[in-house]
Amino acid sequence: MIRRIDTDRLRLVPITMDDIDLLVELDADPEVMRFITGKPTPRIDVAEIVRSSLGHRWIAHDADLQFVGWFGLRPSGPGEAELGYRLNRRQWGRGYASEGARAVIDVGFAGPDLVRIWAQTMAVNERSRRVLEACEMSYVRTFQLDWLEPLEGAEQGDVEYEIRRS
Ligand SMILES: CC(C)(COP(=O)(O)OP(=O)(O)OC[C@H]1O[C@@H](n2cnc3c(N)ncnc32)[C@H](O)[C@@H]1OP(=O)(O)O)[C@@H](O)C(=O)NCCC(=O)NCCS
Questions:
Q1: Per residue of the chain (166 residues), what is the pLDDT tens digit?
Q2: CB atoms within 10 A of CB 52
Q3: Does the beta carbon of 60 sit less than 6 angstroms from any atom of ligand 1?
Q4: Which residue range(s) make up the domain with 38?
Q5: Ligand 1 test: best mutation among 31, 131, 158, 160, most atoms within 8 Å of CB?
Q6: Which of 52, 66, 68, 72 is close enough to 57 for a disulfide, judged by CB 3.0 to 4.6 Å?
């Protein structure tokens, strides 16, 4: 089970089913979804995503209690978890993504189980790559996914980054 995390500027609380509206609104912004699906996420899908992320996703607010976004550490296999994050566009450019992601990584490695935290993003998602690099994650590989409806930049592939406990 996850707990609340406080950073210098953010408060991260475990996600609940009451957060569905916030995430529907977040995913309704085409710029936010540009490198993810390219379209809003239907409410029914958001509800299922929230349900399946209970216990490994946090909702972040700033000091003024404004919604910032979400951070996740999804178990992906023995000793491993996938780092994810998505921020409201109004909150970009403030260092919040790196601050929250670093805090989540620290919490992940504070427990006994994780040896590796990894993340993937489109190669052209430079903002996201800067967040991963700010978290001292290392580039692992570039790979090609088979998209039914390729997003702009998909031809440059996806990239994976990782950080290990050691
Ligand atoms: C990816 C995403 C989280 C990055 O957000 P971001 O705001 O660019 O990242 P950070 O919070 O780390 O902020 C870094 C920026 O804040 C600036 N900044 C301002 N104050 C800062 C501070 N106190 N500390 C650090 N950086 C600060 C940095 O200079 C940097 O600006 P730049 O992008 O102009 O170089 C955001 O664009 C997003 O949610 N995108 C949609 C979802 C997505 O693509 N997720 C990843 C898919 S895998």
A1: 789 999 999 999 999 999 999 999 999 999 999 999 999 999 999 999 999 999 999 999 999 999 999 999 999 999 999 999 999 999 999 999 999 999 999 999 999 999 999 999 999 999 999 999 999 999 999 999 888 888 999 999 999 999 999 8
A2: 11
A3: no
A4: 5-164
A5: 131
A6: 72
Nearest residue to 95 (alpha-carbon basis) of 139, 37, 38, 103:
103
Tally of structural domains, the chain: 1
- Which CATH number goes with the domain that contains 159? 3.40.630.30
121 lines ligand 1 (CB under 6 A): yes
Q: Is 131 in the pocket of ligand 1 (CB under 6 A)?
A: yes
Of residues 26, 47, 44, 51, the one with CA closest to residue 36: 26
Q: Which of 93, 92, 75, 72 minimizes the C-alpha distance to 83?
A: 72
The Å distance, Cα 154 to ligand 1 centre, comes to 21
